[in-house]
């Protein structure tokens, strides 16, 4: 099933640098992913894509891991999956820098952890207020996850959603606040709570970029939405 919620990647014509940026963006949005998949989606030859990926790896912007084997073990080397490193994600920009970390450190010193949490809650409430109507209007968990992924993408998180097992999996391939959240996990905690509120169900955060994972991943169970009245819809 194709991912939804992230912007489609179109290879600009001409300059190698723009093509490499398109390759890097696909690694950002879909990684870990094979070079063959990148080549197919961008309409490039596998050789050309490998050249760009090799350059990203050489520059420390991408890394690889072995793909899990499916079925019986066959001959030959296992396929490689590629994804961006923290350095590679930095090419897409960060909304917060050292000034934001310094400001939150000062806030923590003056008001303690509760002051930081209040700030985090106020920050995420702006996102909730802007997108709540579009998300809660969806009929089931899958459609709400798609709507949430679209909203997050519009806010710069390059998000996608797909069906996995007994639920939906929400992936944020870019985190504009990763450097800040690494020191102040309240940002991730309040975001997770906001997702549960918007989706009307308990959610589980499986991985975060702030903790060194490649993608922020949230599991959303396919359970009936619980309205304010307390009974499943």
TrEMBL record:
CDD domains: HTH_ARSR. It holds the Pfam family HTH_11. Residues 59-78 are annotated as: Disordered. It comes from Saccharothrix hoggarensis. Residues 18-60 form the Helix-turn-helix type domain. This is Helix-turn-helix transcriptional regulator. The lineage of its organism: Bacteria, Bacillati, Actinomycetota, Actinomycetes, Pseudonocardiales. InterPro entries: ArsR-like_HTH (IPR011991), Carb_Metab_HTH_regulators (IPR050313), HTH_11 (IPR013196), WH-like_DNA-bd_sf (IPR036388), WH_DNA-bd_sf (IPR036390). It comes from the Bacteria.
């Amino acid at each position: 099933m194709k991912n939804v919620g992230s912007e489609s990647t179109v290879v600009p014509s001409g300059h190698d640098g723009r093509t490499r940026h398109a390759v890097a963006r696909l690694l950002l949005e879909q990684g870990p992913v094979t070079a063959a998949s990148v080549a197919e989606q961008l309409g490039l030859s596998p050789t050309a894509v490998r050249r760009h990926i090799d350059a990203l790896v050489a520059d420390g912007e991408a890394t690889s891991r072995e793909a899990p084997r499916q079925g019986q073990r066959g001959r030959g080397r296992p396929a490689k999956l590629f994804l961006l490193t923290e350095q590679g994600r930095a090419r897409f920009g960060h909304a917060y820098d050292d000034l934001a970390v310094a400001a939150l450190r000062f806030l923590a010193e003056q008001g303690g952890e509760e002051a930081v949490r209040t700030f985090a809650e106020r920050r995420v409430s702006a996102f909730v207020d802007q997108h709540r109507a579009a998300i809660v209007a969806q009929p089931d968990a899958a459609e709400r996850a798609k709507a949430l992924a679209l909203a997050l993408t519009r806010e710069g998180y390059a998000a996608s959603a797909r069906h996995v097992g007994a639920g939906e999996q929400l992936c944020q391939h870019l985190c504009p606040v990763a450097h800040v959240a690494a020191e102040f996990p309240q940002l991730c905690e309040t975001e997770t709570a906001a997702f549960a509120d918007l989706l009307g169900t308990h959610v589980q955060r499986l991985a975060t970029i702030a903790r060194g994972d490649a993608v922020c991943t949230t599991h959303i169970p396919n359970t009936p939405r619980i309205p304010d009245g307390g009974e499943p819809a």
